Amino acid sequence: xxxxxEAMALGNFSRVTEFILLGLSDTxxxxxxxxxxxxxxxxxxxLGNLLIIVTVRTDPKLSxxxxxxxxxxxxIDICCTSVTSPRMLVDLLSQRKAIAFEDCIAQLFFLHxxxxxxMFLLTVMAYDRYTAICKPLHYTAxxxxxxxxxxxxxxxxxxxxxxxxxxxxTIQLPFxxxxxxxxxxxxxxxxxxxxxxxxxxxxxxIVSNSGLISLVCFLVLVxxxxxxxxxxxxxxxxxxxxxxxTCASHVMVVTLFFVPCIFIxxxxxxxxxxxxxxxxxxxxxxxxxxxxxxxxxxxEVKASMWKLWKRCRVF
Length: 315
Hints:
mainly alpha
């Protein structure tokens, strides 16, 4: 009887067909400033990560598993920032920032697809560094090219399964009332808060999915780097200090990406009404830092890029 009454009550409302994104600011001057900054940041992400991909693919010296995984990370970074940045740039110059319901769900799906895939890939990269430093004699056997392909494929499959769960939990909710999202893109927490029903169980299912994935991957990363630091402390060789420098760069990317995700998804969504400024860190700053860190702090990549530049000048 109660379910029937609720269904009749919901039937009095029309289903939401679009959402209104409030964006980062409603001040025109700030919108122009944000557009300039985020346009430059998006250009840096595209050009920087494309340069890494081309460099790794064209230089036979960069054929180790570390660079193979780095190439895949650059591709994921391009996908991740392309899910949110183009729409955000258009909305910054628009008066009405509306997004269709179907487009919102699609953005939500692809955001979690590539975001979770990146989490898994960063974990695999940490395992690669752990194997190279702590088990150097078995490294080539453990991290063969076939194993690398299997691990990367598993990252994409894991990201897809995670995203399917998030999307199904969201679209089964009724949306018939408010349609204003206090963010610059569609994500699960602000969207499910607009549902015309109690989302307590759905909220905790999503927290246990996204939040635990972020936390577990981060703990695995911390554990692997702890073993690496212990190993380097015992073996004071030039090669190990070089590996430590590489791991330090990796830690910077991991921190920028995981800490905001853990903060956003590992607590009830009603606790914080808006976290859009925190989202900028993992959707914009983290993809920007990746090409900068892996090129400016890696002599092999810089040397390969210089050779690529000289070959391009010849043509």
